[in-house]
Amino acid sequence: MRQFALATLVSAVTAAVYGPIALLWWRRARVRGRTLRLVAAVELEPYHAALLRQEATGAAAAELVLGGYLRIDEEGAAFLTEQGRDPARTPAHPMPAALLEAVRRHDPEPVSIGWIDWCDDFAERRSAYRSERDAVLPELPRMPDGQGNVLLTCLTCVGIALVMLFWLLAAALLVTGRPHGLREWALTVVAALGLAALLLAAKAGQVVRERTECGDPLGDLVRSAPHPAFAALDEEQRTLVLGSIAERYRWRGADTVVHEEADDEDDDEDDAWLDEKVWWEDAYEYRASDEDEPEPEPGAAPGAAPPSSG
User: Per residue in 248-265, pLDDT tens?
Assistant: First the structure.
């Protein structure tokens, strides 16, 4: 009778522990399958994928270089070609078209792609294009993991404590029991297997999470291939494009004039401040020299030299 009750209780507790694990596996497998199906149906536009990789500016510059709209020198400065200056010729895609328009605003001054990417209106148009393209992406389901649910976390901790207490009591009863006959021995084996399964419950939950984890399928799709225009560049062209993107302060195009005028105004203000400072210093020295002159003695003629000490 003791072995039967022990086997029944251990089996019930084991089922109660592995039931939520099986439910978690079922939910995560469904979410994983749905996520993979949604991502498989996504057709990423090349510039959208480049935007998600933070490479859209380089891809647009590469297309302009390959199309003959732009040339980049060894110092990272970008210049328009004759074709690039022709307003009737513009790339069909909005991203390289926006970049070409930004370079035209600075023509004929040399400008780096990095300066345009950092301080020009091109960044706003790029963000608007990304928002437009992100709107067509499917909303991926969230993988259930229990994180952030305080109540579930507390219940899990209480359940683990109760299961550990039960396991200790059941193990003590199993060890101290004296089974008689084949039936009691079979019940004892069932109880022992149940206790062993309880020890492996944490490992089972970890295995379920690892085997149902889908990772980042959308990110893998985004990183699967570079932009075709950037991939078509040879090694020298790729180096020039990347160098121009990295150069953010040296070649500022038409903005250089604005910054130089601002610097001249700052220099004029500094010169005015120095002139005022010198005037006050001269006035102070003149007043100090007046105070150092000795006063004439009473009765002395005006303009008479002071008596010598010798």
Answer: 777 665 556 444 444 445
Structure tokens at 161: 């404590």
In tens, the pLDDT along 77-103 reads 888 999 889 888 889 899 999 999 988
Among 28-42, 187-201, 270-284, which is the least confidently predicted range?
A: 270-284
pLDDT at position 159 is 81
- Enter the tokens of residue 160: 């683990």
Q: Write down the pLDDT at residue 37.
A: 93
In the block, residue with structure tokens 């499917």: 138
pLDDT score of 288 more than 50: no
**3-class secondary structure per residue, 201-223:** HHHHHHHHHHHCCCCCHHHHHHC
**Token pair listed for 91:** 């790339």
Residue type (1 letter), 7: A
d(CA 69, CA 240): 15
Q: Which two tokens stand for residue 37?
A: 């199906």
Q: In 3D, which of 6, 51, 63, 57 has the Cα closest to residue 233? A: 63
Amino acid at residue number 285: E
Extract the tokens encoding 36.
Answer: 């993979």
| Residues with Cβ within 8 Å of residue 49, at least 6 apart in sequence | 221, 222, 225, 227
Distance CA 57, CA 225 (A): 16
How far apart CA 10 and CA 159 sit, in angstroms, is: 15
Q: Taken in order 279, 281, 285, 287, is the CA torsion positive or negative? A: positive
Q: Report the candidate in 252, 259, 242 with the shortest Cα–Cα distance to residue 105.
A: 252
pTM: 0.66
3-class secondary structure, 252:
strand
Residues 6 or more apart in contact with residue 128 via CB below 8 angstroms:
none
Q: How far apart are CA 108 and CA 122, in angstroms?
A: 18
